Amino acid sequence: MDLAPLRESPAFARLWVGNAIAGIGSQMTVVAVGLHIYELTGSTFAVGMVGTVALVPMIIAGLYGGMLADAMDRRRLALIGAIVAWLSTAGIAAAAWFETTEIWPFYVLTALTSVAATVIGTVRQAILPRLLPARLLPAASALQGASFGVMVTVGPALAGVLVATAGFAWTYTVDVLLFTAAFAGIVTLPAVVPEGARHKPGLESIREGLRFLRHAPNIRMSFIVDIIAMTFGRPHALFPAVGVLAIGGGAVTVGVLTAAGAVGALLSSLVSGRLGTIRRHGIAIGWAITGYGASIAGFGVVVAIAVMQGGAPRGGGVDAAALVAASVMMALAGATDNVSAIFRTTMLQTAVPDNMRGRLQGIFTVVVAGGPRVGDLYIGVLTTLTVLWFPPLLGGLLIIALIALAMRLQPTFRHYDAVDPRP
């Protein structure tokens, strides 16, 4: 792994460490809120509504936050977002300490936290190219992938332990304490004012960002290929059924399969040192997403074999071989998705002008937030109409075919060269 960004930019190092520590706490709260609402209501639907309620505000926050990032000091905007996120998390902790039995405060405060986190993430990505030279941006993206892998593995595990031993209120309070690390990374940044012409916040500013995207074929294609991958390659909604009908193991299987993707992303970041030497980012993205499609199709094959062999063992047992094979497929999917993300992020950070970077990052946030939801819809509808293993198998094959078609139809993306980055 290339650690040069941490050595060469103390500002990036502080921002990265602070975000990683705060992210562990945030993942703790995500899990704890779900468990808390289930304890209060006994309803899986009520738990699922936590993310649904936050979706539209997150999309709006991504667009609006990106627009503000191109109009004001990005350090100040990130600090405002961090204060809002900290206060909303403290509000969740207070609701738990006062033993609130209503669920609406958790919905509202979780949505507010998600909005603030979206703004912080959008602004942070726009700040990084000002802290590091272009040659180190792939390594910086890999470091972010590693920290994300740690967040989504350590955070939920800590949440489970703390909820079981200390209760919800203490779990949320630990997140409040951990989140203070984010302030250390942001407060110590220099002022980061957008370079070049700045535009007054408003609808016209967003429209200008969309017009830029219309004339930026490489950036636009990086968004499209991600939508393809997330639409047809998100089998997560299948995991509960796989744990009951195909592999067995129930909730344990769901947890293992979910964690496998994060572990794959973490491992790929740990061996990512040579990615910074690759110049043809478009081809690298194409091959990475092709590998992602193959991994998702492989997951479908594993589930199909398990079903054809009789499904989940009786008596609550688990098909260990099938679980290992399915976990390997999901780890490979996480690894290839992380490699794709490294190059897509680097392309966005280097090919887009600084005074437009916030708005394009905001549009990308919409893509990242919306794609998985469309993917869940694809999985849900097709599973209802067919069999359990068919959606991931078909989806993986569709990803491979559509990525090959996209690479053929957009030669500028195929020939993209990091030495001469063009949007």
TrEMBL record:
Q: What keywords would UniProt list here?
A: Cell membrane, Membrane, Transmembrane, Transmembrane helix, Transport
Q: Which Gene3D superfamilies match?
A: MFS general substrate transporter like domains (1.20.1250.20)
| Name this protein carries in UniProt | MFS transporter
Q: How does it sit in the membrane?
A: Multi-pass membrane protein
State the InterPro entries in the record.
Answer: MFS_dom (IPR020846), MFS_trans_sf (IPR036259), TM_effector (IPR010290)
Enumerate the spans annotated as Major facilitator superfamily (MFS) profile domain. Answer: 11-413
Listed GO molecular functions?
transmembrane transporter activity
Q: What is its main location?
A: membrane
Q: Where are the transmembrane segments?
A: 12-38, 44-65, 77-98, 104-127, 148-170, 176-197, 243-271, 283-308, 320-343, 363-381, 387-407
Report the PANTHER family cross-referenced here: ENTEROBACTIN EXPORTER ENTS (PTHR23513:SF9), INTEGRAL MEMBRANE EFFLUX PROTEIN-RELATED (PTHR23513)
Going by the entry's taxonomy, the superkingdom of the source organism is recorded as Bacteria
According to the UniProt record, one GO cellular component term is:
plasma membrane
Q: Which Pfam families match?
A: MFS_3
Q: Where in the cell is it found?
A: Cell inner membrane
